[in-house]
Design a protein that fits this description.
Layout: E1 3-4, H1 7-28, E2 33-39, H2 43-58, E3 62-68, H3 74-86, E4 92-95, H4 105-111, H5 123-130, H6 139-150, E5 159-163, H7 170-179, E6 183-187, H8 194-198, E7 203-206, E8 224-227, E9 231-233, H9 236-243, H10 247-256, E10 259-261, H11 266-272, E11 275-276, H12 284-303
Parallel strand pairs: 1-11, 2-3, 2-4, 5-6, 5-7, 7-8, 8-11
Antiparallel strand pairs: 9-10
The structure holds NADPH dihydro-nicotinamide-adenine-dinucleotide phosphate.
């Protein structure tokens, strides 16, 4: 029977550990503060920002949500960032992606002060990651590392295969696993014979954005499978395909008219893996926990 790596439980553990640190800061200095910028009204972005802000206030942190119109220019957005960069009560700044087309996303990324870049996307922080030097780390891959550590899974000496090479998940994930002494392979859309490469993995990380793409022939029996993907299915034929060996998915689809699925086939993963992250309830909750951890750490460094 595969072991389920419970992201919600690890999220709770991380948040509980943050509480006394937040309390100490609040009593001795001031509350840690996170500013979240949301441009336009992308429904998915609104949900993500809503839960980040809610978690902040549940923890007793200052959270400020800046809602800006989708007609905003790069210069106007940079002016807001300049103000937040200077504010003493703000320790973390997060700009929810994606931004409207007319905004230069790279200029925005560069404009955030690296020590307030709690997403870990600023080139300075990316450089620190490459060098294995201290800096805020990208939240999703950092969350995966925390989940592995707390689940007693040591990547040292293991074959780790990551499918996906994005700046926000695939690449930082590869570097973190490398620093943890795994032997790392990064795959992408041009990789030849992807199933064979994936079957080498003791630790298989899927960050692709393609519904249940990794099926049985991609998974070595006994592998640890980390499914970062989050895809919403609204079609019945697709729901039936992904429900093979995972009847709860079809039941959820019947009930809600849609269902959330990762990049790994849930039935095949449950059958073959020794341990895996479910979707939902696996990697998702860790991302938000690490965002809170990065903000608290930033406040501690600033107020030390
Ligand atoms: P991107 O679209 O930026 O990157 C996808 C990667 O997958 C690319 O490197 C791409 O390769 C690769 N890829 C696409 N198709 C294939 C294929 N057929 N074979 C092999 N590789 C392929 O996605 P993100 O990294 O931003 O996100 C990945 C997934 O993770 C998404 O489902 C997203 O929703 C989810 N996510 C979840 C988070 C969470 O908190 N749980 C946080 C962030 C993301 P190439 O570079 O060659 O195009």
């Amino acid at each position: 029977m595969a072991r389920i790596l419970d992201g919600k439980a690890v999220n709770q553990a991380i948040l509980e550990e943050l509480k006394p640190r937040i309390q100490r800061l609040s009593q001795e200095r001031r509350r840690p503060g996170l500013a979240v910028i949301l441009v336009g009204n992308n429904p998915a972005s609104e949900i993500y920002v809503g839960s980040k802000v809610r978690t902040c206030s549940e923890l007793g942190m200052l959270s400020e949500e800046l809602r800006l119109p989708d007609t905003i220019t790069t210069a106007e957005l940079l002016a807001h960032l300049d103000t937040l960069n200077r504010r003493d009560d703000i320790d973390g700044i997060l700009v929810q992606m994606p931004l409207p087309r007319q905004v230069d996303s790279r200029a925005v990324l560069l404009a955030i002060r690296p020590d307030k870049d709690v997403d870990g996307f600023h080139p300075f922080n990316v450089g620190q990651l490459v060098a294995n030097a201290p800096a805020p780390r990208a939240c999703t891959p950092a969350g995966v590392m925390e989940l592995l550590r707390r689940s007693g899974i040591d990547p040292a000496g293991q074959e780790a295969v990551i499918v996906g090479r994005s700046d926000i998940v695939g690449k930082p994930m590869a570097l973190l696993l490398l620093h943890a002494h795994a032997t790392v392979t990064i795959c992408h859309s041009k990789t030849k014979d992807l199933p064979a490469v994936c079957r080498r993995a003791d630790i298989l990380v899927a960050a692709i954005g393609r519904t249940a793409m990794l099926t049985a022939d991609y998974i070595k029996p006994g592998a640890v499978v980390i499914d970062v993907g989050m895809n919403r299915i609204t079609g019945r034929a697709e729901a039936e395909r992904i429900s093979r060996g995972a009847p709860a998915k079809l039941a959820a689809f019947e009930k809600h008219g849609s269902v959330l699925v990762g990049d790994v086939h849930p039935g095949d993963m449950a059958e073959l893996a020794s341990a895996y992250t479910p979707v939902p309830g696996g990697v998702g909750p860790l991302t938000i926990a690490m965002l809170m951890a990065n903000t608290v750490q930033s406040a501690e460094l600033r107020l030390a």
